[in-house]
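Task: sequence design from structure.
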């Protein structure tokens, strides 16, 4: 006589359900002679994790959350965390509108990866007078002016800022070592990582402001310091947006 499911703990019962789903997926792929299935489970303890094909050298497939972020004035804002693979280009409109809500104006330019440069996103930016980085769609022109080449080079340099932010988050702030198991605790750990990064960037700016004071100004009133910090956060607008 088999044992009742009531003797199982909540963790054991959850693991049993996950194992049953893993068996169903593996059986389906074996019968269909394929190696791909929607919502494939790759971890019994973390069934929410999905394999994400990135095509990078050495690590063609990555496991973990996929992030959509915005970089503004050296600060990184987390726009979306998702455990499923998604096309981040659909977030462009919402990110630009969020920028307008925050600053009151649209950005002068957006510096984006190739995946963002769709016809729909280009039309959206053109209607609002926003310059999008990167070459236009269609066949590349035979002759490109020096000014356009220089602009493309500058755009690429600015675009590299957001990639560097990911590198800093992984090397210095442990973004590549998220040890939380549950999806909501992992999302919290990721969000806290970017929060600490922004606090570190703010602290560097405040420290630089202290160095700008003359030696005779040995005392800084608290109200003045508060105004300086608010000015750094609110009024320091470069009117450009970096997305990844």
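Answer:
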């Amino acid at each position: 006589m088999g044992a009742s499911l009531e003797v199982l703990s909540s963790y054991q019962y959850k693991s049993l359900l996950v194992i049953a789903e893993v068996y169903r997926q593996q059986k389906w792929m074996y019968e269909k002679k394929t190696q791909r299935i929607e919502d494939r489970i790759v971890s019994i303890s973390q069934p929410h994790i999905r394999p994400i094909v990135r095509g990078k050298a050495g690590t063609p497939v990555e496991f973990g959350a996929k992030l959509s972020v915005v970089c503004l004035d050296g600060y990184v804002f987390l726009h979306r965390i998702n455990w499923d693979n998604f096309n981040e280009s659909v977030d462009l409109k919402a990110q630009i509108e969020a920028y307008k809500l925050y600053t009151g104006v649209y950005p002068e330019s957006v510096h984006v990866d190739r995946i963002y440069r769709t016809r729909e996103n280009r039309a959206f930016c053109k209607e609002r007078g926003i310059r999008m980085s990167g070459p236009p769609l269609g066949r590349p022109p035979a002759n490109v002016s020096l000014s356009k080449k220089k602009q493309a080079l500058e755009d690429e340099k600015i675009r590299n800022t957001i990639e560097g932010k990911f590198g800093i988050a992984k090397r210095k702030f442990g973004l590549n070592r998220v040890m939380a198991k549950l999806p909501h605790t992992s999302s919290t750990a990721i969000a806290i990582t970017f929060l600490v990064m922004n606090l570190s960037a703010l602290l560097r700016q405040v420290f630089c402001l202290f160095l700008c004071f003359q030696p005779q100004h040995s005392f800084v009133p608290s109200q003045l310091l508060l105004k300086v910090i608010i000015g750094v956060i609110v009024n320091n607008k470069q009117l450009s947006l970096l997305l990844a």
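The beta strands are 51-53, 61-63, 66-72, 75-82, 109-111, 131-132, 240-243.
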